[in-house]
Design a protein that fits this description.
The protein is α/β, with parallel strands linked by helices and 388 residues long. The strands form two sheets. The protein has a nine-stranded mixed sheet with strand order 3-2-4-7-1-8-11-10-9. The chain has a two-stranded antiparallel ribbon with strand order 5-6.
Length: 388
């Protein structure tokens, strides 16, 4: 049990936000999260900002940017976090650790990214910095190429999984079609996702366009408060567990199809929380590519290695299944602004647990799992959240 709770949250629209400055984007979600928690800036003890950047924007050193528009935060300690695509969860953990160390009563966590300032090929070059450059920088297609290689290896070991990947894509786009924050609010259907076409070509290996998350801009923010104080606040969502596990960076030093770091993170988190997968009402998982979600079914323990497709065939992860996965639409439909993603996943789970998820709502949601990873299962974060 973690002695901290989510007490406020906010989420921007995800997408191509041409006319929104990054400074405005992060300040708007920060203020909205403070308002949601019913707190003034002066009541915040520290600020934890997650952004990957890596060249997306010229402006770096973002920790104090929020002061420009929320001057009440001035003179508070503020720190920037980066852990590849798990950057948002790194910021969440930084906030949790401040509270657990007795340094803070309320913290503000912000995750943001502006990716669309660069052309898509340049975005791919920036993201490939999250691989082990000495061995993997030459993989064509950027990070899509990395996961295309993983997908091809999975197909070779376990058989063609094109049907399973299409089911994941179709599920997540169907779910995302009712998410008001999603980059892509369109239900493409299984057939479109399954078949190669002019609008859905192969991108890398067996991965088609519908198998890849989009280049997005966006931001999300959380207020995290000490658990005893949270009981006096208008709403709170508790942390039953918050676990981080890192693995080797080079793919050559591990089985790239096992996501062993994710396995360890899930096992530890469920153990700390004292629950099993069957106790969870939903999971928000890191589907940067559909092959990632397929392997994550196996890493979390829903299926044995190579049998993730059976989860889809049985409908277990559908919105009306035994364990809905990515009712928000996931990164696939919601979008993947790198630094915002981990924070966004916690916001989506908190909305479910407070019954405020609108058309995305899973009836009676009580426990939610969040899995956010950086790289190909290198930095792995699992949170188990509960309604209070």
């Amino acid at each position: 049990m973690v002695a901290a709770c989510l007490t406020g949250w906010a989420h921007s629209q995800f997408g191509k936000l041409d006319n929104v400055d990054a400074e405005v984007l992060l300040a708007d979600v920060a203020q909205a999260a403070l308002d949601d928690a019913g707190l003034s800036p002066e009541q915040i003890d520290s600020i934890h900002v997650g952004t990957f950047n890596g060249g997306f924007l010229y402006q770096d050193f973002p920790s104090s940017l929020v002061f420009n528009r929320i001057p009440g935060l001035r003179f508070k300690p503020a720190t920037r976090y980066e852990n590849a695509c798990a950057t948002g969860s790194a910021a969440v953990h930084g906030g949790l650790q401040s509270i657990e160390a007795g340094k803070a009563t309320h913290v503000l966590v912000i995750g943001f990214e502006k990716m669309t300032e660069l052309a898509t090929p340049q975005v791919g070059e920036v993201l490939l910095k999250c691989s082990y450059a000495r061995e993997e920088a030459g993989i064509p297609g950027g990070f899509a190429g990395v996961f295309g290689t993983i997908a091809q290896a999975y197909f070779e070991r376990y058989g063609d999984q094109s049907d399973a990947l299409a089911r994941i894509a179709a599920k997540n786009h169907r779910n995302g079609s009712v998410n008001p924050y999603a980059h892509m609010r369109r239900d493409f259907g299984y057939d479109f996702c399954r078949n190669v076409s002019e609008k859905n070509p192969f991108v890398a290996g067996p991965l088609k366009r519908t198998d890849c998350s989009m280049v997005s801009d966006g931001a999300a923010a959380l207020v995290i408060s000490k658990a005893d104080v949270a009981r006096t606040m208008p709403k709170s969502v508790g942390f039953r567990a918050a676990v981080q596990v890192n693995d080797y960076l080079p793919l050559s030093r591990r089985d790239p199809l096992a996501f062993e770091g994710g396995q360890h993170a899930w096992r530890q988190a469920l153990g700390v929380a004292g629950v099993s997968l069957k106790d969870l009402s939903l999971v928000e998982t890191h589907d940067c590519f559909t092959i990632a979600e397929l392997i994550e079914y196996e890493a979390m323990g829903l299926a044995k290695p190579g049998q993730g497709a059976s989860v889809l065939a049985e409908g277990l992860t559908e919105k009306n299944g035994l364990l809905p996965v990515n009712p928000s639409g996931g990164l696939k439909a919601k979008g993947h602004p790198v630094g915002a993603t981990g924070v966004s996943m916690h916001v989506m789970a908190a909305m479910q647990l407070t019954g405020t998820a609108g058309e995305m709502q899973i009836p009676g949601a009580k426990l939610a799992g969040v899995f956010n990873m950086g790289g190909a299962a290198v930095a792995n974060y699992v949170s188990i959240l509960e309604a209070r």
